[in-house]
Design a protein that fits this description.
Blueprint lengths: L4 E7 L2 H20 L4 H18 L4 H18 L8 H20 L6 H4 L2 H9 L12 H6 L4 H13 L2 H16 L4 E5 L3 E5 L6 E9 L4 E7 L3 E8 L13 E9 L1
Antiparallel strand pairs: 1-4, 2-7, 3-6, 4-7, 5-6
Helix pairs in contact: 1-2, 1-9, 2-8, 3-4
Amino acid sequence: MTNEIIIYEQPLNEQIRLCLRLEYLFEQANYYLHCESLWDLRQTLNTILEILHIADRPDLKNKFGQALNQYASSLTQLEKLPDIDKQKLHSMLKQIDQLIDEIRINTQKTGQELRENEFLTAIQQRLYTPAGTCNFSLPAYHLWLHQDKATLKQQLSRWLDSFKQLQTITNLMLKLIRESTAFKNTKAIGGFYQSNLEPSIQHQMIRISIAAENRLFPEISVGRHRLAVHFFTLDINGRAAQTPNDIIFALACCKL
């Protein structure tokens, strides 16, 4: 834990909030998919159905399409800068344009095939009931799990591939936001940091990097004009308290 760095991220709009949730779910699904037990494969499917739940939003594609258009517009402005890597910039703009075109062409909801699958619908309906997917509730699911593990993994991979475009958009948007602003070392006096924000700049995400050995976590509050960060000690048996110590951490107020 001595040399470990923890990064905390606070999304500042709905698109970035959705991207962070999807990134978390995609990483979880891919992790469990490569494990071997039936419990791992159950968790893979549970996570796929959570992704499907997020993808069920009727405005999801439109919102991501609008966000990608905004990002493309912002990136185009960077062409005027003398030190910009134009080859990398053009490659990024081309990728964004391709994704926007794909969204326009495919008007169907993401994961629509999974949404129409009665087997998956039955599992999803019981997912949030305690032990709702046990064998007596879903005998068909119980039988499915007793197939060859290679067969199960192939099917899970196919279902997860239904969200490949969504995962690409998520990864691209988060990459652009995270790389838009470098971390700067900062000090929180008595566990508290405050700074002014330029209201004309539309910030997307606040990122905080801190050494794990401090055993502190931040609570981030962002208004139109001000950013405030309180650092609290970890106490799993009681109420967290703000540290009285001065804390060195790194801060990035990401914008694009």
